[in-house]
């Protein structure tokens, strides 16, 4: 429990500095929960409760403490994660770089669906915003817009954005939202979507891909609403399905391959699920409590990345000890 207490003290200092108006008791409890999550890496409240450095020795009281925390309406994900999310977005934009966001969904059996928007950091993403729905549902545009609007408000001024998303998400509403914001995008498409490629007839995206290893089609129109976009198609050897990518710019092989960065969210889902925090094993039944549990996991992930970056700056590899090679801004949370 000493390790959890030390972790909680570090996390608590960061939360106090970043959220000075948040109640001191809430900061302390969230910090303890994040410390326990880093130590145990489990969604099981009984396991988390075991390592909590509380005064009581009774396990039932520990579990009750944690259950009350997950029911606390003051734990608003957007509020608690905002300063950490802004920090991650600022770093992604340093030196004028394009901020790359990845939108994807994961299911927890047939109980919950979690839609998550993350920022690409190296070969993975950090969670920024999410929505929890009951059942294995495909969370539609209303949920997508909620997380997109949330993160849009946290972006650094003037930041260029590239959104990556899997083939379950593109819709007329999503395209219109992206066009309205001026965001770049690479959206993978299903093969059964109607498209007007300008050949005088309506076909499907699968028809356009059939028989081609590469194909680039500017100025097409998708869906019945004829949404303007560009298509890039790439079918690599050994892959059953081609990549059919809608994009905001003239299509090339390089712009099609931009979509590969979308897979950076998979390590994040692995961290949240089977290889990390084992979220699929949670016994929680209420979506609001699951949302707060995801918040605790997300704070743990941001804190671990923060700690790793600080360690790298203080003890850089030999090849990076040359002054000026690392110009990343210091973390101040």
From TrEMBL:
Coiled coil: none annotated. This is Transposase. Residues 310-333 are annotated as: Disordered. GO terms for molecular function: DNA binding; transposase activity. Residues 145-301 form the Transposase IS4-like domain. GO terms for biological process: DNA transposition. Pfam families: DDE_Tnp_1. SUPFAM superfamilies: Ribonuclease H-like (SSF53098). It comes from the Bacteria.
């Amino acid at each position: 429990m000493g390790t959890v207490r030390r972790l909680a003290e570090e996390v608590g200092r960061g939360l106090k500095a970043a959220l000075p108006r948040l109640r001191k008791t809430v900061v302390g409890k969230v910090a303890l929960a994040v410390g326990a999550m880093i130590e145990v890496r489990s969604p099981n409240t009984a396991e988390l409760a075991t390592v909590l450095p509380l005064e009581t020795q009774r396990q039932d009281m520990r579990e009750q403490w944690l259950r009350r925390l997950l029911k606390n309406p003051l734990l608003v994900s957007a509020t608690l994660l905002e300063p950490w999310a802004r920090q991650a977005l600022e770093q992604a934009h340093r030196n004028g770089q394009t901020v790359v966001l990845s939108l994807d969904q994961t299911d927890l059996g047939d109980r919950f669906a979690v839609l998550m928007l993350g920022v690409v950091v190296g070969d993975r993403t950090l969670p920024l915003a999410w929505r929890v729905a009951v059942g294995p549902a495909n969370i539609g545009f209303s949920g997508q817009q909620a997380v997109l609007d949330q993160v849009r408000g946290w972006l650094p001024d003037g930041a260029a954005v590239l959104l990556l998303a899997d083939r379950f998400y593109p819709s007329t509403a999503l395209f219109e939202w992206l066009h309205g914001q001026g965001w770049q995008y690479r959206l993978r498409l299903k093969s059964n979507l109607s498209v007007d490629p300008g050949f005088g007839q309506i076909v499907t995206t699968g028809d356009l891909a059939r028989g081609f290893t590469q194909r680039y089609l500017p100025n097409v129109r998708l869906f019945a609403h004829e949404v303007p976009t560009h298509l890039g198609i790439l079918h690599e050897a050994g892959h059953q399905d081609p990549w059919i990518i809608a994009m905001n710019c003239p299509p090339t092989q390089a712009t099609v391959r931009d979509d590969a960065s979308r897979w950076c969210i998979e390590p994040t889902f692995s961290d949240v699920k089977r290889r990390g925090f084992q979220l699929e094993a949670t016994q929680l039944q209420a979506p609001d409590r699951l949302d707060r549990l995801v918040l605790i996991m997300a704070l743990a992930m941001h804190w671990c990345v923060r700690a790793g970056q600080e360690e790298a700056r203080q003890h850089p590899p030999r090849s990076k000890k040359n002054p000026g090679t690392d110009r990343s801004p210091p973390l101040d949370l």
